[in-house]
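Before relying on records like the one below, remember that each one covers exactly one chain. Contacts with other chains, cofactors or solvent are not represented anywhere in the record.
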Amino acid sequence: MKKDEIISMLQQQIGFLQQQLGEANRKVDELLRKVSSLEELLVRKNQEEQKQRNVIRGLTKIQQNKSEKQTPPAVSASDSETAPQTDPKPREKTNYGARRKDHYEVEVEEEDIYPDDSRFDEMRARLIDTHDVVRYILVPMRFIKKVYHVHVYTQDGAVMEGRAPVAPLLGSNYDGSFIAGIAQLRYIYSMPVERIVKYFCENGFDMDKGTAHGLLRKTENIFENLYKAMGLAVKEDVYLAGDETYHRVLVKVPGGKGSKKGYIWVVTAIHTGLVYYFYHDGSRGQDVILNYIGDYGGTFQSDGFAPYRKMAAKLTRLACLQHVKRKFLDCDDDEEAQGIVGLINEFYQNEHKHTIGKDGWTARKNLGWRRKYAPSILKEIRIRLDRMAADPEMLPKSDRYNAVHYMLNEWDAIENIFTRGDYHLDNNLVERLNRYISLSRRNSLFFGSHKGAQRAAMFYSLACSCRLNDINFFEYISDVINRTALMQPNTDIKEYRTLLPDQWKAL
């Protein structure tokens, strides 16, 4: 082969190899870009997973932290002798005596802090220690003015227009989340509307008091059928508890305005966790509660107020042992009365030994337990009551007289408590719910009208139902108000039933 041919062949091979090398370099560059992209995605995924873990850990701590703990029963001398002795746990490190919370539920931002010494050179320095310093930062509420640029086109002789999200209130620019924020502050945190408006202003949103009231008033119209569904759904439960409490209401009087004591009634479904407040011109008359109960034939727990006692003719009525106990506590210098208090406490001490739903303890097992301990206590109480009632020296209308006859009048309803394992010993659940009304009474002093009281009853029904079902009230209202706004007025009431807190699921 000639020299020129060899050179030409080698040049062709060199060109081919250079082409392959270039192709290989391009593939390497592409692979490096993919690796970099994957690394970035992996970092983001790890960050999201860390946030989720933080949320889960926070929720776990919240679930384990019971705000309403019951006092365990006192340990008897015999029990204390047999109980195993355990070493006390070492005290956790505290900050001036206060335990530090980790707050796993919050978003975490991390930042590296390097020495600010002018001599510091990261390339020459050797890391000897890293420690964490935590600071919690509060970002005030945000108000966003969202502008939708709705574009309109013509095409092929047709006009096409974009569609902005439907406003929950006709003629209003406020989203459901805005109304939910006002409702949460007003009915969960018991802030008067005037204070809410001031709070908004301090956080950068100027709003009139009349506008805030108007939003709540218009929302009441949207929730009318939802509120009706609540009243019907509560009576679907076989176990109810009820109570009533007062609130001042502004009314028109000759020459101006005055106020009257009005009453708000509440009925709670124990199993579904739904709560129904209702107001009827502030009346405490028996017709208000009896008309609502109607032909309900389940179980109803309450104090000894006369309208509740009249229910016993058509349903199973349960007494409230705490109301009974308070009557005898008022007789603080009466040894026999305090003896009754001690016997009532024995009911609670026995109930605290087991908790339904824990360690395999069921309502059926609890009923068997009640049948063991309760009869002897009830018998002893009845003997003492009859002896005290027969005392000729007991003065009518005295604290002792009132306590004894109150418990005797409630006796059948007291015995009914121990006919099932899941009946409560008292009506404390409902009384805790009525604290929302008490806080409103203290902070707002009065409702502005009968309509305002009715509107409050509706919102309190939704708010307390959310609380008993572990639902965030703000998220619930934000979602439901937008969904109900799209429903026609003639929509079947059954469709609203699925939007109540015990069945609600966010979209």
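The CA atoms of residues 36 and 42 lie 10 Å apart.
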